[in-house]
């Protein structure tokens, strides 16, 4: 990969994992963009303060960029109101710079299906977050089709790994288990569920940014072997050497809590993911780009726990 300017909107877990991956690939000129303009620990990286929903600012930030990565998102409760404007700003910035645009997406737009998830599935989400994701994906692909921007979309399942806190496999699993607390999960722990290690997601996004033949397409980024949630939790407990406890909330419990807690109402919308098998098919990506190695869950869990431990040690100083 050459050393042209790469711009990453969003400095959350995905953006930071992508920063690590681009550095490994030898990219020198990287701009990180967030609302604060601050990024502790990001040495030798330009950090720019900016609100991507402001089109003029997004265009300014993207000037002379070769690849732009859309890893930004508003708070979970604010997706329908704020997400489309962020995506539009980044799209306009990429178009003005004639840069490739790679969008880090999830799987909500498909809605509830009874088959493995493939890129060819129609968008049948019924909830507001899935509908929002579907509309943004359609906007990006239409902009590519119309020649406005060169874009590709990379999608991943529920992810975990260094820096991941606000995820179904985040703080309430790794952090709680490390502190000897029961971990909190949803639904049926014994059905197959694809989980994505965040560094694998970043590796796939970087590949999309590197390969022109990825443009104009949606790609499911490869994840490690799909196992059950219980099996993944057991890997966590085994690495910690503990007999962990798990609390799994049923749909009825979430429904009751949703009457009092806004976040539970949001979770209720995508609860279907955890009731029956949720398997992501990434054969399209593997067939096109080949040789894309994923991190085995055992090793990914080990690295994630190492990160959580290091953060706990920092907090105790």
UniProtKB/TrEMBL annotation:
Domain NAD-dependent epimerase/dehydratase, chain residue ranges per copy: 10-214
Superkingdom of origin: Bacteria
InterPro entries: Epimerase_deHydtase, NAD(P)-bd_dom_sf
SUPFAM superfamilies registered for this protein in UniProt: NAD(P)-binding Rossmann-fold domains (SSF51735)
PANTHER family: DTDP-D-GLUCOSE 4,6-DEHYDRATASE-RELATED (PTHR43000)
Family: Belongs to the NAD(P)-dependent epimerase/dehydratase family.
Protein's UniProt name: NAD-dependent epimerase/dehydratase family protein
């Amino acid at each position: 990969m050459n050393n042209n300017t790469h711009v990453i909107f969003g400095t959350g877990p995905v953006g930071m994992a992508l920063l690590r991956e681009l550095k490994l690939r030898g990219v020198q000129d990287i701009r990180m963009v967030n609302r604060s303009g601050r990024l502790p620990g990001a040495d030798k990286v330009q950090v720019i303060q900016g609100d991507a929903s402001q089109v003029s600012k997004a265009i300014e930030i993207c000037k002379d960029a070769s690849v732009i990565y859309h890893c930004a998102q508003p708070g979970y409760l604010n997706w329908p109101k704020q997400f489309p404007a962020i995506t539009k700003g980044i799209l306009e910035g990429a178009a003005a710079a004639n840069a490739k645009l790679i969008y880090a997406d999830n799987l909500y737009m498909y809605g509830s299906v009874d088959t493995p998830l493939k890129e060819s599935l129609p968008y049948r989400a019924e909830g507001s977050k899935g509908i929002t994701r579907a509309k943004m994906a359609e906007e990006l692909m239409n902009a590519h089709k119309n020649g406005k921007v060169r874009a590709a979309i990379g999608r991943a399942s529920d992810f975990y790994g260094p820096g991941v806190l606000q995820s179904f496999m985040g703080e309430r699993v790794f952090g709680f288990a490390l502190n000897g607390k029961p971990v909190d999960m949803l639904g049926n722990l014994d059905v197959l569920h694809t989980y994505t290690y965040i560094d694998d997601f970043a590796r796939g996004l970087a590949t999309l940014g590197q390969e022109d033949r990825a443009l104009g397409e949606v790609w499911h980024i490869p994840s490690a072997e799909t196992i059950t949630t219980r099996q993944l939790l057991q890997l966590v407990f085994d690495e910690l050497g503990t007999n962990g406890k798990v609390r799994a909330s049923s749909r009825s419990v979430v429904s009751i809590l949703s009457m009092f807690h806004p976040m539970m109402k949001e979770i209720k919308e995508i609860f279907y993911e955890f009731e029956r098998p949720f398997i992501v098919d990434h054969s399209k990506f593997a067939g096109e780009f080949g040789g894309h190695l994923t991190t085995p869950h055992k090793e990914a869990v080990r690295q994630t726990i190492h990160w959580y431990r290091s953060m706990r040690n920092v907090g105790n100083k």
